[in-house]
Specification:
By secondary structure, the protein is of the alpha+beta class. The chain is built from 12 helices and 19 strands. Helix 5 packs antiparallel against helix 6 and helix 6 packs across helix 11.
């Protein structure tokens, strides 16, 4: 029987029937899409590939478990935040303690607060201590793993109560200090690659260059030691656990040294090479040199004792006697050219921060993100950070050009072309997003930020 004829026989309007059926189908379809849309969001709308990051976590966990505390007495595995620096989206390997992250498949996701800096470092978030790294991570597998094991070691340092500070190694931007540092590195490289039985001779020369530099800059020994322990041993750990063999370990350290030598400055980055070099040399003694190490330890002294090396009393004479064995002429030529250029740069910065109009920012508790490879010491005034992000009570400062003179108590940026539009202040290469009741006020030829009720 025809369907329409059947509908007439039972006295139901066919058009009305089809209209009702279509309404029911639309409702069902809407309900279905509502139920499955979160699944599409999970798969498609996150700013990062959570499945890829889950694979990263598996790689890091495998490296940590393979060592399982053999190197430092504790497994390095710890809570990890991988944070997209553009969207501030978090992918974590573990839940937080305050419910800020939600479980998404086999990882945890959320967003990092705007008032906290994103860097390769450690951070307190959601009631836990985390290792955090910025996304995207290096595409190269070794570089990615080495970076994250480096940062996981920092998390372990925090758990071991090894204090973190900001040691001032500004002397390492001076020409004579850089020459002696490069000579020290070259002698250590020769000791690691020696096949003629001259390792001890090379180590003695390395320690002569090291001690002579420190004699020229009295009071800087502890600052160098501290950074070698904090950052140098972190990089040593990354290379050690990510290398397949002793030969790979050595080659990976030497390869990193080629990159570090090309850094703009060594004020902080020197430790990323010195630490691994001394660490590998100490490893070859088969002694448990890592036990009980603190920031007051001197890796050079440990090498001296482990290899029974006697340091000459006349360091200047010993330096002049040995320097030509380590490419001194080439090093001197390169550093002379750099010094000429450096003085021109310093003149520009002196004028910018001491003679021109500036904005002075008080920072009692700085939260900062910066590139340690680019720092430029400026006499006794502080250090110029070519780019930096500072989060403080008064808001967020982002410097992209022109530099910021910063000494961890106050920051100074150029006051030229300063403008304010509501809560945004802009200047020559920088921008501030003001917080709360803070306002821009003139102070003589300069500016400061003060609270409205000040």
């Amino acid at each position: 029987m025809d369907f329409v004829l059947w509908m007439k026989l039972i006295n139901i309007d066919a058009h009305l029937f089809f209209h009702v059926i279509m309404l029911i189908m639309k409702k069902l379809l809407s309900a279905f899409l509502f139920l499955v849309s979160p699944l599409f969001i999970l798969a498609q709308d996150y700013p990062v590939d959570t499945d890829k990051i889950k694979g990263y976590f598996n790689d890091f966990r495998e490296i940590c478990d393979r060592d399982n505390g053999n190197l430092w007495g504790a497994n390095l595995w710890a809570p990890i935040l991988i944070i997209d620096k553009e969207s501030r989206f978090i992918v974590a390997n573990q839940p937080d303690n305050e419910g800020l992250l939600r479980k998404t498949g086999e990882v945890y996701t959320g967003y990092y607060p705007k008032d906290k800096g994103i860097a390769n470092s450690t951070t307190d978030f959601g009631g836990r201590l985390w290792m955090m790294v910025m996304y995207p991570l290096p595409e190269n597998e070794y570089s990615r793993n080495q970076l994250c094991i480096h940062e996981l070691f920092h998390s372990l340092q925090k758990r071991m109560n090894i204090s973190f500070g900001n040691p001032d190694n500004s002397h390492l931007d001076n020409m004579d200090a850089r020459i002696l540092l490069k000579l020290e590195w070259t002698a250590l490289e020769k000791a690691l690659t020696d096949d003629r039985g001259r390792k001890k001779e090379y180590l003695e020369d390395a320690l002569v260059f090291r001690n002579y530099r420190r004699a020229l800059y009295p009071g800087k020994t502890q600052a160098e030691n501290e950074l070698e322990i904090l950052e140098g041993l972190a990089d040593y750990t990354g290379h050690r656990l990510c290398s397949g063999s002793d030969g790979d370990f050595r080659n990976n350290i030497l390869s990193s040294g080629k990159r570090i030598r090309n850094n703009q400055t060594y004020v902080r980055s020197f430790a990323y090479y010195s630490g691994p070099l001394y660490g590998l040399i100490l490893d070859r003694t088969n002694q448990d040199w890592r036990a009980g190490i603190t920031t007051s330890d001197d890796l050079g002294v440990r090498v001296q004792h482990s290899y029974n090396i006697t340091i000459p009393e006349d360091l200047a004479k010993a330096y002049k006697k040995s320097r030509n064995l380590y490419n001194y002429d080439d090093i001197f030529r390169v550093e002379s050219e750099r010094e000429e250029n450096r003085q021109e740069v310093l003149t520009v910065y002196r004028n910018r921060f001491t003679r021109d109009t500036v904005l002075i920012l008080d920072i009692p508790k700085p939260n900062v993100v910066f590139d340690p490879r680019t720092l430029i010491p400026l006499d006794t005034l502080g250090t110029v950070y070519p780019t930096i992000r500072i989060i403080a009570d008064w808001g967020i400062l982002q410097v992209n050009e022109g530099g910021c003179l910063f000494d961890w108590k106050k920051a100074i940026v150029s006051g030229k072309s300063i403008k304010q539009n509501d809560r945004i202040i802009t200047g020559d290469g920088w921008e501030i997003e003001l917080a709360g009741s803070w306002k821009l006020v003139p102070e003589g030829m300069n500016y400061r930020l003060k609270q409205e009720n000040y």
